[in-house]
Write a structure and sequence with these properties.
The complex is a heterotrimer. By secondary structure, chain A is α+β, with helices and mostly antiparallel strands. Helix content of chain A is 20%, strand content 17%. Chain B has 2 domains: 207 residues, Thiamin diphosphate (ThDP)-binding fold, Pyr/PP domains (Rossmann fold); 112 residues, Rossmann fold (3-Layer(aba) Sandwich). Helices cover 40% and strands 19% of the residues of chain B. Chain B is globular, with a radius of gyration of 21 Å. The longest helix of chain C has 19 residues. Chain C is α/β, with parallel strands linked by helices. The chains are: A alpha+beta, B alpha/beta, C alpha/beta. Chains in contact: A-C, B-C. Chains B and C meet through α3, α4 and β9 of B and β2, β3, α2 and α4 of C. β4 of chain A pairs antiparallel with β1 of chain C, so a sheet runs across the interface. Chain B: Keywords: Oxidoreductase.
Chain lengths: 69, 357, 250
């Protein structure tokens, strides 16, 4: 089991993490963060599929993501 | 009593900097000051300090920025065209409030100009050495000994106020040899350099940043106000000048600095014999300019003032500002490397004051 | 649960001003992580010259200098010569290093200054709004090459890593890219190695990092990564250009 945590307020909605996630479980949240972006997020359901590879965290330019396994 | 040794001006500058604890020297060859670099090339490595010939004056002044920002005493030296190249860097150094000493051994200009002595960088040094509202302390030595003293004083003033300090000589002062002594100096009580980028080294929580960028106008204006307050303080505390033969009434007052002031003193003595009393005000700091000395003499000079310069007239603007219309102002200058004789100056003065008494 | 990935202490916990998807943020992380992992954050000083990444002085947690455009290698030389046991790096864009700063980077390398240059090549001037840079590709459209860069009038893009690798003072020069996670891992290795070589005082090191500029390229961040792969990498081949530390010189 692995968890990827997103600091929503820092996300700029660039979508790079969505692109590199090997299991394609990251999406954009409907709500907007304070900067006016739809932050990247993983639903609780999808989190179960997370393999903890941290690809999302490695490509994120804004260090939004922390990964635990 | 330190013994006197005969030294060339340019080399005495290097030795003075070493005495002042200068840790790094960054230079570039340009006549007539290249011996400063050659001297430092010989001496600095022997005492475990840094000598580096940069690829250009632009690189050299930015090396000064880096070393000064790291908290060490640093010197660079050049001549007129090289100082023009350093102007941007000097503005950065002033904006980032970094202490350093910059030598300008002035040569004839503009453009490539010549290599003979001149004083045609006065306005550049005191008013226009790079963009923005900033000032730089400018010392004008008139002898090799005074160069030695003012280079060491320059390091103290730089550290005291976190400012660039220029010691501005000319080709003659740089190339001539005179006896000098390196006396023990009564150093100043200087602030610690806790702003320097020494690395946190486990001793600091927050990082230090050497910077002159303020994108928010409110912040940049506030920064400018802070710099201006510093300049007022320097103007109040650091003005240096010599009043020569200015006691009582005089027929005219010469304004002259550096090598020219020594030629003028001879003219003063010549005219004394002809019953013409000539005072001389010698600014030692070109900025802050000794305006009070001129104000003081306004009521005591029959024919006002004459600015004598190795240029087409630059310091005369500051003399005029200080005198503020209260007395006539004359000018005598030679440029291009031409140096006037005492007789030339005496004749000019006689023409103004109406010949011998 | 063990932490697999978390924020490096080499970067202050502040948001950055970079555009969404701009890979400056990734490169900052790689530099900061390298310094942290090598245990030299405490004696590091970085130099951020004019360019989008000038504000890096607000992001790196080590001491920083803001430098005049093109002059970071000279400022870094001053820092390193003043404090020889400091770890000094410059973080420069392509306009800064390969245009106005060409003399400074060449001579810092030729002198073998014990500093590390992180050269971020994104083929454009970012901060000033997308002008042609010395690394802009032939035919690439920018604000100042609106009809596509014409090499006959605007000259050819400069391959900096190769150029610098010809200088004896440069002991380790590699070009990397941050267009994909595998490449990001390789880039981290290269940057960390460069700092290790600096720690051993062997000479000048430069890592050229191909990076994106979604805003001025006019592409979405993910498209920008693709554009980099398809256009930049062919012209700027990745790999070690010089490694004089093991005698293997390309």
């Amino acid at each position: 089991m692995a968890i990827a945590k997103f600091r929503e307020e820092r996300c700029k909605g660039c979508g790079l993490c969505l692109e590199v996630c090997p299991v394609k479980i990251i999406g954009f949240d409907e709500k907007l963060n304070a900067k006016g972006y739809h932050p990247a997020a993983i639903t609780e359901e999808n989190m179960k599929k997370c393999v903890g590879c941290a690809s999302c965290a490695r490509i994120c330019p804004d260090l939004v993501i922390t990964v635990e396994k | 009593m330190a013994e006197k040794i005969l030294m060339k001006g340019n080399e005495a500058i290097g030795e003075a900097a070493i005495h002042a604890g200068c840790q790094c020297f960054f230079g570039y060859p340009i006549t007539p000051q290249t011996e400063v670099a050659a001297y430092m090339a010989r001496k600095m490595p022997k005492i475990g300090r840094v000598f580096l010939q940069a690829e250009s004056e632009v690189a050299a002044i930015n090396m000064v920025y880096g070393a000064a920002g790291s908290g060490v005493r640093v010197l660079t030296s050049s001549s007129s065209p090289g100082i023009s190249l350093k102007a941007e860097g000097i503005s950065y150094i002033a904006g980032a409030e970094l202490p350093c000493v910059i030598i300008n051994i002035v040569r004839g200009g503009p453009g490539l100009g010549g290599i003979q002595p001149a004083q045609s960088d006065y306005l550049q040094a005191t008013k226009g050495c790079g963009h923005g509202d900033y000032k730089m302390v400018v010392f004008a030595p008139a002898s090799v000994q005074e160069m030695v003293d003012l280079v060491q004083e320059g390091f103290d003033v730089a550290d005291m106020y976190r400012t660039p300090v220029m010691v501005m000589g000319d080709g003659m002062l740089g190339q001539m040899m005179e006896p000098v002594e390196f006396k023990e100096r009564q150093g100043r009580q200087l602030p610690s350099k806790d702003w320097a980028t020494t690395g946190l080294r486990g001793k600091r929580e927050k990082h230090n940043v050497i910077n002159s960028l303020f994108l928010k106008p409110e912040e940049l204006e506030e920064h400018n106000r802070k710099l201006q307050a510093k300049y007022r303080e320097i103007e109040n505390n650091e003005v240096k000048y010599e009043m020569y033969n200015c006691e009582g009434e005089v027929d005219i007052v010469i304004a002259a600095y550096g090598i020219t002031s020594r030629i003028c003193k001879n003219a003063v003595k010549m005219l004394e014999k002809e019953g013409i009393k000539v005072g001389l005000i010698r600014p030692i700091t070109l900025w802050p300019f000794p305006s009070k000395a001129f104000e003081e003499m306004c009521g005591k000079t029959k024919h006002g003032f004459i600015s004598v310069e190795l240029s087409e007239g630059q310091m005369i603007e500051d003399v005029a500002l200080a005198v503020n219309g209260r007395a006539p102002i004359h000018f005598y200058g030679r440029s291009g490397g031409m140096v006037p004789t005492p007789a030339e100056i005496a004749n000019k003065i006689k023409a103004i004051v109406g010949g011998a008494k | 649960m063990a932490v697999i990935f978390e924020r490096t202490k080499g970067l202050l916990d502040v948001p950055t001003h970079y555009c969404p998807g701009c890979t400056h943020g990734v490169i900052h992380r790689l530099v900061a992580e390298s310094l942290e992992e090598l245990g030299v954050l405490d004696r590091a000083t970085g130099v951020a010259p004019v360019g989008c990444s000038v504000l890096a002085y607000d992001y790196f947690s080590c001491d920083m200098h803001e430098a005049a455009h093109g002059r970071a290698p000279a400022v870094a030389t001053g820092i390193k010569r003043a404090i020889p046991d400091s770890i000094v790096f410059t973080y420069q864009g392509d306009g800064d290093l390969a245009a106005i700063g060409t003399a400074e980077i060449v001579h810092a390398a030729a002198r073998g200054e014990r500093i590390t240059t992180i050269f971020v090549n994104n083929c454009i001037y970012g901060m000033t709004g997308g002008q042609m840079a010395p690394t802009t590709l032939p035919g690439q459209v920018t604000e100042t090459s609106p009809y596509g860069r014409d090499v006959n009038t605007a000259g050819h893009p400069i391959r900096v890593a190769e150029m610098i690798s010809t200088l004896d003072g440069a002991v380790y020069v590699e070009r990397v890219s941050v267009d994909s996670v595998p490449n990001i891992l390789k880039a981290k290795k290269a940057i960390k190695k460069a700092f290790e070589i600096q720690m051993q005082g062997l000479g000048f090191t430069l890592i050229e990092v191909l990076s994106t500029c979604p805003t001025n390229w006019g592409l979405a961040p993910v498209e920008a990564l693709k554009w980099l792969r398809e256009n930049m990498i062919p012209y700027y081949p990745l790999g070690v250009k010089k490694d004089a530390t093991t005698g293997e010189v390309k």
